[in-house]
Amino acid sequence: MEAWFRYADDLGLGPYCLSRSAQLSVTPSTSPSKSDVAETSVDPPIATVSKLRPAVAAASLSSLAPMTAPRPASGFVPPAAAASLFEERIENDSLERIRETIGPNCMRCKLHKARTQIVFGVGNPKAQLVFVGEGPGRDEDIQGEPFVGRAGKLLTQMIEAMGLRRPDVYICNVVKCRPPENRLPENDEIATCSPFLLRQLGVIQPKVICCLGACSAQTLLQTNQGISRFRGEWFDYRGSKLIATYHPAYLLRNPAAKSEVWKDLQKVMAVLGLAPKKR
User: Fold this and answer.
1) pLDDT, averaged across the chain
2) Which residues of 194-203 are buried (b: 16+ CB within 10 A; e: fewer)?
3) DSSP β-ladder status, 170-173 and 122-123
4) When you count CB atoms within 10 A of the terminal residue's CB, does the N or C end of the chain come out lower?
5) Distance from C-alpha of 263 to C-alpha of 247, rounded to nearest angstrom
6) Which of 70, 40, 69 is nearest to 52 (CA)?
């Protein structure tokens, strides 16, 4: 085990553990003691194990290969489609069970301080198409339903232009409570609330996920790149096909972008086998 840790450290993959009393430091010229090695090998936290996984893969190869896959033309590298090894799996999960888990009085993050009510999601629980936004706005906070304000009306028009109705699809957000002054959700808020979104998607298992805006796309694709880098491109997401396009609120401020969004929606329609609604 000691030799393994020294080998991994030479590859630049350490350190692996922070001691409660002092930080463990291993350099190529200083070998760790047996007690230190024992400490690092007992019940490592999840973040620690995630760092060890590349070393396990590297140790099993006879020769070292490049660690990154070739980049597509856009320069955006999608994450692995498989779920994390440490992600909690809930048997017989359901949308109702997720709603009950959140509860009507959730106080898990600071967004609860100014919200009126939880905005969970709405639509067909077996939908082939799920739209994911960033968070509720003022109208949504009052009515308890996502996308019911001006941006919501535009989304309804987009759905109908695809030959569908709102009850045919499922609509939800990354966070379930309205951010103050309609600001973007902050990282800690996303980290707290997004697991419920992942469970929703896991229960519905849609054929297509359409991310509306950068926040939802960055959350699901685990990237901080701007949406213009990957808008309109297809990604595999845990058995579903994922595409990102501009948020309806953005279209209200920039009507010229509607043609680009329509191109993205036509790609979705092609995958779902839909024909445009006749005027």
Assistant:
1) 79
2) bebbbbbbbb
3) antiparallel
4) C
5) 14
6) 40
- For the chain, the C-alpha Rg in angstroms (whole number) is 22
Q: Do 154 and 251 touch, CB atoms closer than 8 A?
A: yes
Q: Please give the Cα distance from 279 to 277 (Å, whole number).
A: 6
Tens digit of pLDDT for each residue in 193-217? 999 999 999 999 999 999 999 999 9
**Bond before 15 cis per omega within 30 degrees:** yes
Residue 186: count other Cβ atoms within 10 Å of its Cβ. 14
27-41, 52-66, 161-175, 206-220, range with the lowest pLDDT: 52-66
Tokens matching residue 239: 């058995």
Tokens of 178: 């309205």
- Rounded to whole angstroms, the Cα distance separating 195 from 89 reads 11
Asked if residue 8 has pLDDT above 70, the reply is no
For residue range 214-265, list pLDDT tens digits in order.
999 999 999 999 999 999 999 999 999 999 999 999 999 999 999 999 999 9
- Which residues fall within 8 angstroms of residue 163, CB to CB, at 6 or more apart? 269, 274, 275, 276, 277
Supply the pTM of this predicted model: 0.71
Chain-centroid distance, C-alpha 173: 11
Neighbours of 23 (CB within 10 A): 8
- Give the Cα separation of 148 and 137 in Å (integer): 9
